[in-house]
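Lab notebook page, bench 4
Experiment: in silico fold of construct C2
Operator: M.H.
Input chain length: 328 residues
Purpose: comparison with the prior construct
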Amino acid sequence: MATFRKRGSGSWQARIQRKGHPDLTKSFGTKAEAQTWARQIEAEIDRGNYSAPAPIETDGTTLRDLLCRYLELITPKKKGAIHEGHRVKSWINSPIANKPLAEIKSSDFAKWRDERLGKELSPNTVRLDLAVISNVYSIARTEWGFESLANPIKLIKLPKLPNGRTRRLTPEELRKLIQALEYTQEVHQIVQLAVETGMRRSELLGMTWENVDTAKRVVLLPDTKNGDSREVPLSSRALEVLNSVGVKTEGPVFTTKPDSVSQAFSRACKRANLKDLRFHDLRHEATSRLFEKGLNTMEVSAITGHKTLSMLKRYTHLKASDLALRLG
């Protein structure tokens, strides 16, 4: 009898269990498609016409074969296609990619993990690299007919992520930073908006005047990192900064390139003698300030676009002294 369950990705997985036959699973975009496939397979089994897929042991497919197919068909559809493409190509050039799937074990990836960590790569980088391989295996199993292919990444322990950064920007540090940026007009404005809105660098640089409504005091971000659109409210200070840019009816709000923003920010930090400060810390600072203004979790996540409470907590560092004042 077939069973069906909805997966976290929104797809539906059909599972057929029959005595004398290997378990069969396959994922589909809708439950109706999963049910149709299950009925067809069960009918073939009942008629004695079903032929199980060849086991992986008799298939000469290598990991490189899957990676190349993934790079061609799956990666280009992703928002972070460029970054993922680099990771996939790195895997394609690795020795483990030459091995047939039947010979690859979870211990191979555990050894790879330990070697990478031994080279002082960050735990998050190693996790992201392994996540690519995990997705390759999942796609191969659910979309490319490798139903009996087990995912070895699910059997190994992933590197533990370090605690989130706790760097907060003091008012005096912000004043020094803004002063150090006064000769780079756009970056000067971008930094102030980052602290006021919590927007990512890519979101700030992707803003267009068509999506800025100064009357309603909101900015529409139609295409964010997580794939959803959202509206960001503008504080009075944020509105002042936008007005200083010179409000137009169309076109990009800022024209500075991402690398130029990062370079100008780094130079300003050196001039202002600010230690261990990154541009992305401005998003941390803005998120923490929203909570300190009294906004609740749902309100803050609507502004910043954080999907989960755990991620929101990583980006939030409230001052205990401020919390003490609120306690009375």
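Observations: The chain has a mean pLDDT of 86. Strands lie at 2-6, 12-16, 24-28, 212-213, 218-221, 230-233.
Next step: discuss at group meeting.
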